[in-house]
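**Backbone geometry record:**
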Amino acid sequence: MKRLFTLIALLVVAACGVALAQDYVPTPVTVSKEKVKLNGKVYLSHVVLEKQTLYGIARAYGVTEEDLYEANPKLRETGLQKNAILLVPFSENIAAVENSAAPQSPAYLEHTVRWYEDIDDIAKRYNVTVKEIMDLNNLKNRKLSSRQVLKIPVKNAVPAPEVVPDEVPSENPEVADTQLQIPDPDSVEEVPDSTFLRLRSRDVVNFSLILPLHATGQVSEVNMDFYSGVLLALKDLEAEDIKVQMHVYDLSAGLPPTEALNRSDFVLGPVASRDLEAILQRVEGHVPVISPLDQKAASLSNYYQNFIQAPTGADAQYEDLGRWVKDDLQDDDKVILITEKGAGNVTASVAIRSAMARQELEYEILNYAIVEGRGIPATLTELMEKDGTNRVVVASESEAFIGDVVRNLSIMLGKGYDVVMYAPSKVRTFDTIEGSVYHNASLHICSSYYVDYTNPDVDRFVRTYRSLFNTEPSQFAFQGYDTTRYFVVRCSRYDYGWIKRLGWERGTGLHTDFLFGTDAQGNYQNTAVRRIVFQKDYTTTLER
């Protein structure tokens, strides 16, 4: 059936070839601001989008096509490929020609799809209908992919406000659109809970907890774990003389009454993005609503006020990864960035490169496909240093590609090179890669969640949880405990001004940390991450 479908698709494309050629419109080129220094020369790093041409790119940057061929020696052989990283020689006249790319058609605007958006989100943002977007883009269904470029009708569209700062590469919508004002973790104060217990000003904290406890007619194990963690947090807070009134609503029984919610100091939950939106519409910004688990719920910040995103998003993890590389860098070290050639999803690649650019890191780029993996050790031999540490940043979330990279790094370790690997936290979930290779490569990852079972507080929590519920606490139980304790303590300490102080102090939990930044709408999103190191003695340690 799959083969038949493919054949039909090819026939349709062949039949429509002439019409497609007549409607072809080159994708406008936006000049990147991401600088890369290689062999003493400065380049701008440009991510090639679909339908961009070498002529258009050269014209936008004020260089010649021959300049691009010289900067990218393999370009004549491979040709211009979608999502490829193109080095553009930097010159001072680039800014003057930044807007000289081929003009956009006045019939539409363009929107690059972010990882958490669906077509309904985009239609709502631009005040157009889903059908208008589908018709203009010849979409056969509602499914979108990250970084897909959509045409948006201009007759109704209200363009999203430009929130990209000068230092964020305009070619990186994943980072630029998020636009969090992230506090520097080294410049904020970490205040222990004991301080809050001495100085609190609120007698009773009153909050509402909303969970789909019977989501499918049966008890939801995930939500019950979260609820159990909340109950343990309240037990500990009571022992510390913090008085709390919690009102629990089972979303399966319907939405809570608006009047009751608006009497709360804050609302914790629900979990899913669609349920959170229903609550946000109900309270109309009168009470803070906290998203406890769903990372994708961050997109709701575009439309609602008084919204707090407790789970840390991937962008903050990538940002701290770049900062970590800079923190570790010594004089004799070498930074090597490895990216996957021809990857379908370049979110991690672009975001990590952007984070490294903001740290002004100098690095060598190695871009290859898995089929070329056997020849990579020879290339790495040319790139790596024998005297210092080779800090290898892998900008990919592909399990197959990560597996090939660690195989090649193991070869280099066997040759006597000192290698430290930095990668997205998703690598921990890969089943086909043995953990021992991560330890051999001293893997460094930044993650939203990590439980350090050597921590006495964690040990106490686990023992109490076992005795009360006769089972082991899951990550959702830890999250319920940490989230409840963090917000109740802040509310108790700062009374009605607590929400404005979320970015002033770092909170440390058993499972996650809290350090809030503000987005373009003035809402708060957690930016705290934990730095985790896979040590060569096969232990895993938490650095922060």
